[in-house]
């Protein structure tokens, strides 16, 4: 079975599109996770500060 140049270009274009889409989705997921971890850290710091304020007025 032979492939034409047009089919090869179309295949490469589709492969590039899929790779780009995957990297974009991975980047969004990583950014969302980073923001969630940062929020959890801030909540922990606030809870620690509140505990210290209660124990040592």
Protein described:
The protein is mainly α. The chain has one helix at 5-55. The mean pLDDT is 92.
Give the class from helix and strand content and strand pairing: mainly alpha
Whole-angstrom Rg? 25 Å
Q: Termini separation (Å)?
A: 82 Å
Major sheet summary line: none
Overall mean pLDDT stands at: 92
How many individual helices?
1
- The string of secondary-structure elements, in order, is H
Assembly type: single chain
Proportion of β residues? Answer: under 5%
Broad shape: rod-shaped
The percent of residues in helical segments reads over 70%
Which spans have pLDDT < 50 for at least 5 consecutive residues?
Answer: none
* Extended strand count: 0
What is this structure, in a nutshell?
This protein has 57 residues and is mostly helical. It contains 1 helix and no strands.
Label this structure with key terms:
1 helix, rod-shaped, mainly alpha, 57 residues
Helix-strand blueprint:
Elements: H1 5-55
């Amino acid at each position: 079975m032979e492939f034409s140049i047009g089919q090869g270009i179309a295949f490469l274009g589709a492969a590039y599109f899929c790779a780009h889409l995957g990297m974009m989705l991975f980047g969004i997921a990583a950014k969302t996770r980073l923001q969630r971890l940062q929020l959890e850290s801030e909540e922990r710091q606030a809870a620690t500060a509140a505990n210290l304020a209660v124990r040592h007025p």
